[in-house]
Design goal:
The chain is α/β, with parallel strands linked by helices. It has one domain: P-loop containing nucleotide triphosphate hydrolases (Rossmann fold), CATH 3.40.50.300. It has eight helices and nine strands. The strands form two sheets. It has a seven-stranded parallel β-sheet with strand order 4-2-6-1-7-8-9, sandwiched between helices. It has a two-stranded parallel ribbon with strand order 3-5. Helix 6 links the parallel strand 7 and strand 8. The C terminus is likely disordered. One of its GO terms (cellular component) is cytosol. Its cofactor is Mg(2+). InterPro entries: DTB_synth_BioD (IPR004472), P-loop_NTPase (IPR027417).
Length: 230
């Protein structure tokens, strides 16, 4: 499964950890793959460390890391480093066949953020794997446009949109945040699969698993399961 967002800081890593935690609790072998981690030094923990802290003992794989908090293509260019290629990500995922029941590929930013100067994006990875995409959305004003554009881009490429998850709903959502929960399925033509509360990144594993079950549990009981996703 490919996990992308409507933008940065929308809760992608927390959603990835939640899906991984639920799959792991169901006895599945889970690997989380991060094609490119940006904005983190070599000796600093990145998104995958956060996933392990929240979800527990899942396997992780990071293909590249660049120090500046920029799009992967730009960060690689400025670092004088080799960028990540879509075929490289596809090959890495296929290499996990037989060792993982569920592979979650967490992108950087949104769907069409460039991985390299050949203009390859996470959409190319999804196409190469024929894998469904889970869209993590912010809750607030402006998200409907980003979500609709992402859904349109996926449809144009023939890539299935599994659905949307709101990654960080405030404790007291405002009018836009409340109505967006109803409107996201309308603008994406895909179901709202779950809602996670804001602030989960700082809780312990047990509390996180409870929150994941509350926010995403209906997904696992409603026709989607780790076994049916790539």
């Amino acid at each position: 499964m490919i996990v992308t967002g409507t933008g940065t800081d929308v809760g992608k890593t927390v959603v990835v950890a939640a899906v991984a935690a639920l799959a792991r609790a169901a006895g599945e072998r889970v690997t989380v793959l991060k094609p490119a981690q940006t904005g983190v030094a070599e000796d600093e923990p990145g998104d995958l460390a956060a996933v392990v802290r929240l979800a527990g003992a899942v396997d992780t794989l990071e293909l590249a890391r660049f120090p500046e908090p920029l799009a992967p293509a730009t960060a690689a260019r400025r670092a004088g480093a080799m960028p990540v290629m879509a075929a490289q990500v596809v090959e890495a995922v296929r290499g996990l066949e037989g060792t993982a029941d569920l592979v979650l590929v967490e992108g950087a930013g949104g769907l069409l953020v460039r991985l390299n100067d050949l203009h390859e994006t996470l959409a190319d990875v999804a196409s190469g794997l024929a894998a469904p995409v889970l869209l993590v959305a912010s809750a607030g004003l402006g998200v409907l446009n980003s979500a609709a554009l992402t859904a349109e881009a996926l449809a144009r490429r023939g890539v299935p949109l599994l659905g949307t998850v709101v990654g960080a709903l405030p404790e007291r959502p405002d009018l836009a945040e409340r109505t967006n929960l109803d409107d996201l399925p309308r603008v994406t033509d895909a179901p709202l699969l779950g809602v996670l509360p804001a602030g989960l990144g700082g809780v312990d594993h047990d509390a996180f698993l409870v929150a994941a079950r509350c926010g995403l549990g209906p997904v696992l009981g409603g026709g989607w399961s780790p076994q049916t996703s790539s």
